[in-house]
Amino acid sequence: MASGDGIQMPSRLPLLLSHEAVLLPGSSARFTVDSPRNMQLVSQRLLRGTSLKSTIIGVLPNTRDPQHDTDGLPTLHKIGTAGIAVQVVGSNWPKPHYTLLITGLCRFSVTSLLKDRPFVLAEVEQLDKLEHYTTPITEGASSSEGELGELSLKFYQAAVQLLGMLDMSVPAVAKFRRLLDSLPREALPDVVASMIRTSNKEKLQVLDALTLEERFKRALPMLTRQIDGLKLLQKTRKTGPENEKRVRPVRKGGVVSGRQFNLDEEPEDEDGDDIAALEKKVHGAKMPDAALRVCIKELKRLKKMPQSMPEFSLTRNYLDLMVELPWSKSTKDCLDIQAARTLLDNDHYAMDKLKRRVLEYLAVRQLKTSLKGPIICFVGPPGVGKTSVGRSIARTLGREFHRIALGGVCDQSDIRGHRRTYVGSMPGRIINGLKTVAVNNPVFLLDEVDKLGKSLQGDPAAALLEVLDPEQNHSFTDHYLNVAFDLSQVLFIATANTTATIPPALLDRMEVLQVPGYTREEKVEIAHRHLIPNQLEQHGLTPQQLHIPQDTTQDIISSYTREAGVRSLERKFGAICRAVAVKVAEGHRVATTDVSTAECPSQQGDKAAPPEMPIVIDHVALRDILGPPVFEMEVSERLTLPGVAVGLAWTPLGGEILFVEASRMEGEGQLTLTGQLGDVMKESAHLAISWLRANAKTYQLTNMVGGPDPLEGTDIHLHFPAGAVTKDGPSAGVTIVTCLASLFSGRLVRSDVAMTGEITLRGLVLPVGGIKDKVLAAHRAGVKRVILPKRNSKDLEELPANIRADLDFVTAANLDEVLNAAFDGGFPGAGHTHTLSSKL
Ligand code: ADP
What we know:
The chain has 30 helices and 24 strands. The chain is an alpha/beta fold.
């Protein structure tokens, strides 16, 4: 047991190995700990212990803790400082570590190592007497000790001299003064060496000095050096402030500089400069008064904070963001409607209705700049150019553009930021976006507002409401900033695939502009005017090197893509460009019309002839590059048995064709439905069966043995293939009826017909939505006849002329008309139900 005459120190100490900082008795220091043994010491000893004793640890300087706990220990420094851990802060960022604040008590020497895992534990011997640090001096006591007394007096006087040269209003200096008067002289070398600017090596020298005399001898030159440095500085200050800067770098050579008073709690010199620069920026950022006040307050706090405190960097980051934000920086709008029209036309083919509406919107903005109109929201399948129109709008206005992807955002702090009290807190996406664009009037594209999620962390839609509402957004408060930022100059545009999942309150503030999918012809045009030239440019090719004929484009559209937009088409062109770029780079030939693709590259390689320009991508080359066709025209192939019909469905990704299959077997009249159906779809199936049973006689529908009730002794199985897709919505009603009618009558449905429409129990056909997308899907799939509800006739006007010319539209008011149109030569029993419906 080591013997302090008063306070006792444990004889066994867990050791913290430190190679960066040196702790001296009587002072405090912060240690960042991330190596395995040190981490174990904190987690198993400091955090678990309950007594005061368990917070006492030994800090061993000049000893590096190995990076792996399997590594052996290096030689331990002989002398260390026992200290009390007064604060432990843990963090996971950027990697798990602890920051310890330790106050040194006394020196110890290691007598023997007891264990080195999970942390180092050693038998130690106490070297200083603790009461030295707790009993103030009595004048006579130390002066009576001859040389030592003289030395300590000299040291004390020097310390007083230094104090006299410092600014008492700095808190650390005031603390120094208090200490100087209250501490016993024996403690002074340790305390002063840790407060003035000394290197770790120098501190180590003081620590290793075991006799008081030696300690004074080693610390005194450090103190006088500091005083000399200060004198020098004061002299240069007198000669002119501009010289000050020149003196500072000298410090690197060992001479102290202007603010050399390196008290433990004071930020370093460079930081002083840094903070001054930051302060200047704060005043130059032209922020509103409220924000400025907050910044000034934070700056004040920052100045007082030690740099090693975690909060220092938090506050620093906050202030950096505040000065970077474009409080009053904006671009000048340059709106010329004529030019805007040309630009929109040049950037985008087709979409006339959309472009017209966008121009109207811009024109109104031109007339009334402070327009508090609704937010435009483009709704349509992926890849139809919603984002790209948004970007064009920004260009026509001469504004910065920034896209904020909202898909999957389910935490409101994504929009509004985290409060600064959290570790790793950040501003939200809106403020981040403003920081990125660095002006306060950009165009923000809120992408995929229909995919906002909801979670326990609050509803992001509610936060978005505040952003979008012109009445509120002039004082949008991000949690991180905690001061209002004016968003009223930002032009918001939203995009979505469907309006169904946009939260109603949000939808209410938007003007929805539908962007339907493209027809094959439109896609060919878009491809040749925009996509191909873009891809060529991106791949460093020229039209003189690569030519893709229209035929090939048609082929890609129908055999390699099945989509409403043009995104995957664009990717296919990318693939072609890459393949050709390789050929061009290698100097080989790509398979062109005159060269069979059967030739393998090695045969051609021998020739190593430069490719024939331009390389033309024909059907053969296409298969070579993209592989065998992915999509086949399958409609007609599948309609070869009774009990199959083709419906048209609408999904957020555009229109789709939907097969319905039915089969029957002996049973007890049960209906089985498979293929991921929603409730509405199941109801449609029951409706269809009821109607057919009710009208079985009219249409001469029978069961398997020819009985009058189709369901008698029969089980029916209805299946909607493509089971991975959830299907809901009533619009498959007519298809189910047709499919079952075909099953019960044993007749084939026409192989080129597709249909959509909701049914009622009495056999009426009701209108449905998404007609344009559905018809486009039918056209893509090679269907020739489309059966639609009569009340949807007006929707046909929106279709491009060539589609209207290609397809035969039958509009039906009741199921009888549907069946007549769906089967070759009509369906028997026509006329009867007609009378029924006309009564209704
Ligand atoms: P969305 O946002 O609707 O999913 P994008 O705007 O990302 O689609 O469009 C995908 C690609 O298709 C972009 O390269 C875009 O330029 C192009 N594109 C889409 N529609 C058109 C069009 N009408 N004219 C020219 N390019 C288009």
